[in-house]
């Protein structure tokens, strides 16, 4: 696997502005401490709400943290989560990424960890998936449609199916939020490290027990400049018609 710098193609379908935004939307972790106006945060949440939601259920909620005292109380939790990640999965560079580049990424992660209390805004997308409405007639029809083998497999994969169903309702909106941040000149990056200590995060932020959290997105004005992303070439990842 190799990675390469991806430049925007002005002739790409959809117009140059959108493609330029996507091709320069790097994870920006070094943030200025300057506050982000509430109306700008509202624009980001509006973009998230515009995202598709499975079954149009729209059971999402967004916790927005801008209070410095609250952020200071979250900083130790963030440090514990990041340290856990860097000691395990984050200990090694991904295949195809050279050590120097990965070292720069880790340095940015450590910078964000050490300056987390100065983060201007943190957005935590949440979702409470409604209980399924099932009846015997529907279950019977479902089993008949799938067939006995597939029905049995579904019974053993409910946990994964539930997680994917919830994620598919949340993450399109989060991607909209990230795109909106880039379009407004804001730095943002999606993380799920808080899940290492989700109970503690939920307690600190007063999030109900039955509400699941799906990301922690630090947002602020970037210290550096946006630039082209490095990704695997399309030819290496596409399978036409079948694998």
UniProtKB/TrEMBL annotation:
Xref: CDD domains: Nitro_FMN_reductase
Pfam families assigned: Nitroreductase
InterPro entries in alphabetical order: Nitroreductase, Nitroreductase-like
Keywords: Oxidoreductase
Classification via Gene3D superfamilies: NADH Oxidase
Nitroreductase domain residues: 26-221
GO molecular function: oxidoreductase activity
Similarity field: Belongs to the nitroreductase family.
Protein name as annotated: Nitroreductase
Organism of origin: Streptomyces arboris
């Amino acid at each position: 696997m190799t990675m390469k710098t991806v430049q925007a193609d002005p002739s790409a379908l959809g117009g140059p502005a959108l493609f330029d935004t996507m091709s320069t939307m790097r994870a920006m972790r070094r943030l200025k401490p300057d506050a982000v106006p509430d109306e700008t945060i509202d624009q980001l949440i509006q973009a998230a709400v515009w995202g598709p939601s499975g079954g149009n259920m729209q059971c999402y909620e967004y916790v927005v943290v801008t209070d410095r005292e609250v952020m200071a109380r979250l900083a130790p939790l963030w440090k514990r989560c990041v340290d856990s990640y860097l000691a395990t999965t984050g200990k090694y560079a991904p295949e195809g990424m050279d050590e120097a580049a990965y070292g720069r990424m880790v340095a940015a992660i450590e910078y964000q960890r050490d300056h987390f209390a100065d983060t201007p805004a943190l957005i935590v997308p949440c979702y409470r998936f409604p209980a399924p409405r099932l009846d015997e007639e529907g279950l019977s029809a479902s089993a008949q449609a799938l067939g006995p083998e597939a029905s049995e497999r579904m019974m053993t994969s409910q946990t994964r199916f539930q997680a994917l169903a919830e994620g598919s309702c949340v993450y399109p909106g989060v991607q909209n939020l990230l795109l909106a941040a880039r379009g407004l000149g804001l730095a943002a990056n999606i993380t799920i490290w808080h899940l290492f200590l989700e109970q503690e995060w939920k307690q600190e932020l007063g999030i109900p027990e039955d509400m699941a959290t799906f990301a922690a997105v630090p947002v602020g004005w970037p210290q550096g400049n946006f630039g082209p992303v490095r990704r695997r070439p399309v030819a290496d990842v596409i399978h036409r018609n079948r694998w």
